[in-house]
Specification:
The chain has 15 helices and no strands. Helices cover 76% and strands 0% of the residues. The protein has one domain.
Length: 322
């Protein structure tokens, strides 16, 4: 297993290094958008930070699995596929041509946000990464960093408040609405640090919300499965309202996109309407998909409890028979 991990790391680093080398002058850095006459398909973002983070996450996950000899809740093949699919989604959202195109087109920016806010958190948490990634940490990090934070009463209090279902939902929807305000979106498009902060808050709010919904073992959410389905249904309403407002707006809302210039011969209004539709329809569909996942988890939980109760009854019958 260690050999596989090392091969994975070498391959991953080689791919990233090769990507940076081959991209050369055709690439963009951070959030500069596309240069005049630049080939869209060659406009990959070569900022190494996201790639390094993804490789590190994969390394910790695989290392933790290799050290976990007697797992209390084994990670299935489908869970591993889910985790790595989520990492791929993050890579596509932040490193592929979607990122520089999003500087010119509102619709691509909404697609990018759906990927990092909804799709990636759902897939990564579906891989139950908590235990493998903690086990993958070096001892000094686990003992000197993680455990002091976990045992700190201020950190525990903050975690308890953040994972309150109402608070997590407000943050999830509040971040979405915050960055759709024209002055905030325009500022993010003009300032790279603000843009990075926008992506960070979008990703954080997504992981925080789905942390309570997906309930990856060994974490136990305070929300009953039925309440999780209800919450997923409720967030459809404000999501739809925002999408409808964008679709039926009569004038361009974001001046930064007017200044940047559109691509693919699409008008600014068509781009804005398409962005609203992406926020509206796929955004609502992701909530429905997550609700379906919760229903499956609920069913599995009920089946496990039924099996435990049946085993207890059989054990009681055996004892009484003796």
């Amino acid at each position: 297993m260690n050999i596989r991990i090392n091969l994975f790391l070498v391959t991953g680093l080689a791919v990233v290094a090769g990507f940076h080398y081959l991209a050369g002058a055709s690439t963009v850095h951070a959030h500069e958008g596309l240069a005049a006459g630049q080939n869209v398909l060659a406009a990959w973002n070569t900022n190494p930070i996201p790639s390094f983070g993804l490789i590190l996450a994969a390394y910790l996950y695989l290392t933790g699995l290799s050290r976990w000899h007697r797992p209390t809740h084994p990670i299935s093949r489908w869970q591993r596929i889910s985790f790595f699919s989520g990492l791929v989604v993050v890579f596509i959202a932040l490193q592929s041509p979607i990122d520089p195109i999003a500087e010119h087109m509102f619709s691509f920016h909404q697609l990018q946000h759906i990927l990092i806010r909804m799709v990636a958190p759902l897939l990564i948490l579906g891989g139950a990464p908590l235990t493998p990634m903690l086990r993958g940490l070096p001892p000094w990090a686990l003992q000197g960093v993680v455990r002091p934070i976990v045992s700190n009463f201020l950190a525990r209090g903050a975690y308890y408040r953040l994972t309150n279902p109402v608070v997590a939902t407000i943050i999830f929807l509040g971040v979405l609405y915050l960055w759709q305000v024209p002055v905030n979106m325009n500022l993010a498009l003009h300032n790279d640090l603000v843009h990075q902060f926008m992506h960070l808050t979008m990703t954080f709010s997504g992981f925080l919300f789905y942390w309570l919904i997906i309930d990856p073992k060994p974490h136990r959410s305070r929300m009953h499965y039925g309440l999780r389905v209800l919450y997923l249904g409720l967030i459809v309403i404000p999501n739809t309202m925002l999408g409808v407002a964008l679709v039926f707006a009569q004038t361009p809302i974001y001046s930064a996109y007017v200044e940047a210039g559109q691509l693919f011969g699409m008008s600014i209004m068509t781009d804005q309407q398409l962005g609203g539709l992406l926020l509206w329809v796929p955004g609502d569909m992701m909530s429905i998909l997550a609700a379906g996942v919760v229903m499956i988890l609920w069913y599995q939980k009920e089946e496990e409890q039924s099996a435990l109760e049946a085993a207890r009854r059989e054990a009681n019958v055996d004892k009484s028979g003796r």
